[in-house]
Design goal:
- This protein has two helices and eleven strands.
- By secondary structure, it is mainly beta.
- The strands form three sheets. The chain has a five-stranded mixed sheet with strand order 2-9-8-4-6. The chain has a four-stranded antiparallel sheet with strand order 1-3-7-5.
Length: 181
């Protein structure tokens, strides 16, 4: 009976010590919401702090989604003494297929073995860019008779990252309309 009681007390003390260590190690990202330009490299800074009186040894994992490419390493070994903090840069690049104005989550977890000690999440979105250009393919038009028809070839290009609806409105200058055109 005494052995069972001692084993139970030892297990309880170990669980309480584990909970104290878990509360004393924190993660924080420099930004919780990140808006990126299409295909631009961005750097986040991760801060890990051990506020407890026990050393911590574990692994930091950065989740990689199919739309966000992690340029830096995705796993780091972490060793922190009591009261120590560490800063880790995370470089990321949005993928080519990342949808505009749709939130994707970058998740950072601090593990000790199979147990998750702390997590931090950053919401990443791509900024919508509207850029439509209209270019005339001819510079000058010469009309030889009043009854000539006008044909102006144009090129429309969308260099932005969102689909755009384009409406063309043709209008002749006021002076041409009075001369029988």
């Amino acid at each position: 009976m005494l052995i069972i009681c001692l084993c139970y007390c030892f297990h309880q003390e170990k669980a309480q010590a584990q909970a104290a260590i878990q509360k004393s190690v924190t993660l924080s990202l420099s930004e919780e919401q990140l808006q990126l330009k299409e295909r631009s490299v961005q750097t986040l800074t991760l801060k890990i702090v051990n506020t407890g009186d026990q050393p911590f040894k574990g692994t930091l994992s950065i989740s990689n989604t199919e739309f966000i490419e992690i340029i830096s390493r995705s796993e780091y070994p972490v060793e922190l003494k009591a009261g120590e903090s560490k800063f880790i840069p995370i470089r990321l690049l949005p993928g080519k297929d990342m949808a505009v104005a749709q939130a994707h989550h970058l998740r950072v977890t601090l593990n000790k073995g199979t147990e998750v000690f702390a997590t931090a999440v950053c919401e990443v979105t791509i900024i919508a860019k509207k850029s439509v250009t209209l270019i005339s393919m001819t510079s000058n038009l010469i009309l030889s008779a009043i009854s000539d028809s006008i044909k102006i070839p144009v090129k429309i290009a969308n260099t932005g990252n969102t689909a755009q609806q384009v409406t063309l409105v043709c209008q002749l200058p006021q002076g041409m309309q009075n001369r029988g055109f």
